[in-house]
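Feature request disguised as a bug report, sorry. It would help if multi-protein outputs had a clear separator. Right now it looks like this:
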Amino acid sequence: MARINPQKLETLLCSILIQHSCSAANAKCVARALVAADIDGLSSHGSARLFAYAKQALNGKVDGFATPSLQHPTPSIICVDAAGGFAYPAIELGLNTAKRAIQTSGIVSVSIGQSHHSGAIGQFIEPLANAGLVVLAFSNATAAIAPAGGIKALFGTNPIAFACPRADRQPLLLDLSLSKVARGKIKLAADADREIPLGWAIDSAGNPTNNAKRALEGALMPIGESKGAALALMLEILCAGLSGSNFGYQAGSFFTEDGVQPRIGQLFIVIDPKHFNPNFVLHIEQLFTEILKQPGTRIPGSRRHEQRQDSLENGVEIDDGILERLNITLRNA
């Protein structure tokens, strides 16, 4: 593993994207999001995604020059059209608008349509929690999870994130997908020709598999079995249904440059807790205190914050092979 300065890595990714049909503004936004994932140790959503992003932008599967547009039909509803471009600029536009709107409405919903891969979606809501807000984030994704009783992938892994402020501490941050493991981790295993644990996925015939490539051709297992599949269905409706975007089974792959554009959706719900409970932050600290009284427990997100501190002090840890491929891609563009 190599260590690299985060700003240097961001510049590298940005340069590659610009050379692969992206505007400078979009390239910077995307690069910033990928490096933020690497900084937090979420390598499956970091620089490793750059290769697919760049190829898709070059081939038009994602519009690297798209400019998201915003509508504000009511004081508490914001609708953003990502226009077939990357999710990150659309998310930033929507949440920046929500941060202003929340001052008068108390609760704001942000629906993003015609979008793309949302990456480590928790990174976008943590700053709002630092500002004292409670935020839920949802996204649908390309087909990866079969409905209960089925074997064909229909729903996405459909990540969920939640962030809320804490008293004199980093915000609570939950960020998880509804599959037992993120699809990106299986993709990394497939690229490295590594096996995966049984129980993560089934092949196209519905049989449990430890072959990562067969897993990508089959379906990922949801958390909580049928309950996880039901939650994935709910997110398809909230994210794609409300925004008029593609459901998971209609969306093109995030990993390949061929096929239709993904054009999926995201939904964010931003809450100002002081309108419900002026003592919200102090009140929830009682719960965290009780959790930590039990040996072996931790507050979710704490390891992410520890990894972030290490990355900022010592440089981002990145696979040697990925770093070499990034430099080759830049030279050959």
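(second protein starts here, but nothing in the output says so)
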Amino acid sequence: MSQRPILYYLGPEGTFTHQAALQAQAGLETALGRAPRLAAVDRASSIIERVDQGRGWGILAWENNVEGTVVPNLDGLINAPRTAGFARLGLDITFDAFVRPDHGVLTQVSAHPHGLAQCRAFSDAMGLEEVPATSNAAACRDLGPQQVGLGPALCGRLYGLDRYRAGVQDFQGARTDFLLLAPRGQAVELSQAWARAQRGGNTASDTCAYESILALIPLQTGPGVLAGLLDRMRDAGLNMTAFMSRPIKGQDGAYSFIATVDSAPWEPSLHTLLEDLAGRAVWVKTLAVDARMPRPDPPVDQWMLPVGGLVAGRSSAGEPTAISKNEELLWPTM
């Protein structure tokens, strides 16, 4: 790692991933004493391919608090033989509306389809026709004189645009976590360097908490297999913060399971668990290890719940009748 590495991100310039890459660039300079060069690519899968080939590092959108895990990026990392994640960083997702300095009457709004969906109240209020673009940054880069472009704040400076209005997204508080990637042989060293930088250079081993993302595939399927896997993780005393399944493509009934746990693979509890699982006909792979970010633990208030359902013997509408309880739980009526 003596030469200045490249950090690949999903382009063009001005995407949210570019904004996260700039943040990562500054963090890596603090952690390593040198900043990587940034390079845009046109597909997220190309980022993993380049890292897998040892051509540099990468950054991918990993999870957001609106839509959850970015599944194609997860699948790509599961199947990448020589790539692992070593750090995570969070980015608040806010959309600004931009126009050209020489704009005329505004009749259209352009952004990636997801961006258009997240800013629909603004577009509807202005009576703008939606024009999908390949990315929010591309919409701003190619903006027409009758168009409003939606994108991150840095698009205005990059493409010489005027900010028409700030923060036009429908949902306030949206946030995306990004995962930094490196060749597997570099991941542990980079994760520890990033962690030291996050805790202000303190080298004491007990001052940083890590989390690991694991991929687990039981080689035997059938009743009780998943319960047994979860029992092993519980008995190891690990705090699991996320768990999901992904189908093994084209194979009915076969799944990989993705678990996020509060530990590093070299720490005794997780080290022992991984050895145990590998010896019990379970394919195991550590996808990422990173310094755990502060996590809120808010109570789930009534207004956060979906319509319907039961909790503590009550429905969202109040005390349920026998009929409504049967309907919510799909119990047969007597």
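Even a blank line would do. Unrelated, but nice: The chain has four domains: 1-93+173-199, 96-165, 209-297, 305-334.
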